[in-house]
Design goal:
Length: about 220
């Protein structure tokens, strides 16, 4: 009420050591980031900071402190943290983990999927240059692009099921923050994780990104 406190949101990425502080006089924040700078879904830490030195006499009811602190006067320095919220991480959709790379050695219309585990986990999708170009500039043919991307997602999930089904603690797939977030995303959609029985990559992919079926006018229907 006296405008001596400030809303703050810290955006960070442990993998890339990226850290940026956003401030606002309002609780709602607008933040922006470049995915290339982070390499993973960012972390957000909301807090309230003191803008200027302040002497404050604590009250249990007003300030929510223990009764032992009731009536105690404290000196707050500039930048003191008055409140800290829980760290928030964006849910990682599998599309955020894809890196599309043109490869002249692949035949027309072909692609291959691999995993990069150094630093932030990503899927490297190597594509025939013409296919790579189409996915970047599909024009009006968004339906075909969407269906190709569903195929790519299915291949990525198959790779996880084949190569990342073991959880060996610090060496297992849960050591990758992006995969941990992806597993949570699948769980929230009611889809089994790739290391569970009953997981089918093609079913999971089409549940996340159902194939788009072109519609036809009733006069053209057979």
């Amino acid at each position: 009420e006296e405008h001596v406190a400030l809303y703050v949101c810290i955006l960070s990425s442990p993998v890339s050591s990226h850290r940026r502080t956003y401030t606002s006089s309002e609780a709602a924040h607008r933040v922006a980031w470049d995915r290339e700078d982070l390499g993973e879904a960012p972390l957000f830490t909301p807090m309230i900071l003191c803008q200027e030195p302040r002497e404050l006499k604590l009250q249990s009811v007003r300030d929510g402190v223990h009764e032992l602190w009731n009536g105690v006067t404290v000196n707050l320095e500039r930048g003191a943290r008055l409140a800290i919220g829980p760290v928030i991480q964006l849910r990682s959709s599998i599309l955020e983990l894809l890196t599309l790379v043109p490869d002249n050695n692949l035949h027309h219309g072909c692609f291959e999927v691999g995993a990069l585990t150094e630093g932030a986990f990503t899927f490297q999708v190597r594509l025939n240059p013409e296919l790579h170009r189409f996915l970047q500039y599909p024009g009006e043919d968004q339906t075909l692009r969407a269906n190709i991307m569903t195929h790519v997602v299915s291949a990525c999930l198959s790779l996880l099921q084949r190569d990342f089904s073991e959880d060996d603690g610090e060496e297992g797939w849960r050591s990758h923050r992006a995969l941990e977030a992806l597993a949570q995303h699948l769980e929230q959609r009611g889809i089994p994780c790739w290391d569970e029985e009953g997981f089918h990559p093609e079913q999971a992919a089409t549940m996340l990104y159902p194939h788009r079926i072109p519609t036809r006018d009733s006069d053209d229907a057979v």
